[in-house]
Design brief:
It is built from 8 helices and no strands. The chain is an all-alpha fold and 169 residues long. It has one domain (39-167). Residues 153-169 have low confidence and may be disordered.
Length: 169
Amino acid sequence: MRPKNVADWAEVISAFAVVTSLFYLAFSVQQNTDAVRASALNNVTTDIGTLMQVGATKEIATITMKARNDEPLSETEKEQFLYWFFQNIALTESAWLHREQSRIDGGYYETMVPFLCYVVDNKTGREIWFKWKDSITEAFWLETMEKCGFEKAYVTTISSPKSAMKAMN
């Protein structure tokens, strides 16, 4: 074989190797993307299950029913409601962020919105929602406002936990 023919064959083989490597890379990236999406969905689903278990306890169910009926809450109940409420917001906001990054299907996220609307749609829930606005992603907050049909009836500048708890009294 002459050196010119060897060089020609080497170019063909290396071109084939490059194309094969690119196909492998594309396949690997797709698999990784699918794995990230599956992981995100699994995390959100697991968090929903955990939140539902907490919300199904007699103690939290009683507190949320009192809040929904605008009945007075004790200081301890207010604190428990506040933390359960924030878990709901954090979970839904996390799912919203996953949706924004195309890690979960938009339809899956949409199934969560009515529950958050239900949780927020009471006097105590709205007070917390509006007072802690700055600790929530603005685009998520605005989208939720629209989807839940909340009016911006009152917005305050209260941003600290103690101030929010005082305002709930």
